[in-house]
Amino acid sequence: MESNKNCEKFDEFFLVWESSCRNFIDDFSFANEEARLSRLRIHVFLRKDTPLKALPPAHDWVELHYSLTTCPFASDTCIVAELLQRFGACADKQELCVESPSTIYLIADKGRKYEEVIELLTYRNTRLRFVEIDGQDNTILDILDSACKFCKLVFSTVEERDLHNLESHNFFCAHPECPHHTKRFYTEKDLQGHIQGQTMCPYCDDSIFCSDQARREHMKTIHDILEPISPRDKNNNALTCQFCPERKFTSGEQVEIHMKNCHKKCNCSCGMYFKTRDDYIEHFYTVYPLACFENRKCPHRFQSVMHQAAHHREDHFATHPFYCVPCQHWQSESGSRQRMCFRDEKSLRIHGKP
């Protein structure tokens, strides 16, 4: 019975931390204590060797699920196992009530990633409601209907959010044909800047245009006058790439597509873009400086000797998993095949003392 209450109470999100969806947990906060207690629960699945600096934000509504191994797809396996364990038992019992079914959001970095597991869970229980979300193009603020994207606040109800918008962001363009007649401005300053940029037709009374494009269309259609494209109309709303300033874009979606196709996004907690793969590798090797010394073809890298030793012991079954990094680098440069490794951390520390 307790599980039913939890299902009704929370919007639940399931996320693999090693995927490209870390930005889904955007920097947001709750408007009040009621919203914090009643809105959501985020389940983050991550590998057991995740460095402390790369952990998800620590909140009481974020629940961490560590893998038992450090294999590359351990977190993906864990999230499927958790879904089957928690919701698979509901298939025959029909535990969820019809009036308020729980919505389970699965955050995916690839299309149709969880389609099969969703079909398995809903095959015998249509009351289970799963939604697969593209975690690369959306954040949690895009999903929650009671969130203010301007202030990055989550309210307990949609009515509270509407009241907040009315009090804090009640700035609209009075011109009925302007897109901002129904789309809010963030501040009054933004609205005033928009009003100052409005133009009028010299031949028509009470004609107001919020963009040069609308004015040109009016002049051509009504007065058969072809006006040139103004520099303001070309560049006023143009977006650029931080690495390719000569490229111009008309929307944030175009910028994001360009960044994904032409540049490299870091998979660590920073989520930064880099101009070239070499720049990304240089950054990544700075964050994770230690390679695997047991197998030179192993792609894993680590932030500390302790994480490296755990990988050597668990993945490569090394009996002497602790390596002296300076000695290893010197031997690699000199061409020596002798390995300076130790059984435990104490032996490594004794070796390192002058």
From TrEMBL:
Where does the C2H2-type domain lie? 146-169, 199-223, 239-263
Q: Which InterPro entries match?
A: Znf_C2H2_type
Task: Output the superkingdom of the source species.
Answer: Eukaryota
Name it: C2H2-type domain-containing protein
